[in-house]
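Need tokens for this chain, all 116 residues.
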Amino acid sequence: MAEILQATPFPLSEDKDIQEFVGRISSGHTNFSIAHNTAEPGWTEPGQAPEFDEVTYVIAGSVDISHQHGSLTVEAGQAALSRSGQWVRYAAGDEGAEYLAICIPAFDLEDCHRDD
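Here are the structure tokens for all 116 residues:
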């Protein structure tokens, strides 16, 4: 049976709205997660070396991703892949960012290993 998935708010930051559609808190999935993110200009999160792959698909604005070998900017209509175990830090571009985060396995804050 097909079903409509309802977004579940995932509170992590005042400058970023996260709505999880598939994942540990919304649907009970542990093998992957999909979340819609909206971040204000100037938002950044601590560096991390997560235990999951993350695909970042940008819908509007841009996302800056710092990594151990430099940085890159992901523009609207582009996607980036960050591999499990590799250090990254995400930040919204000058106009802010609207993007999807797809994590395999599902996002778990304890598995992020953040620098903070």
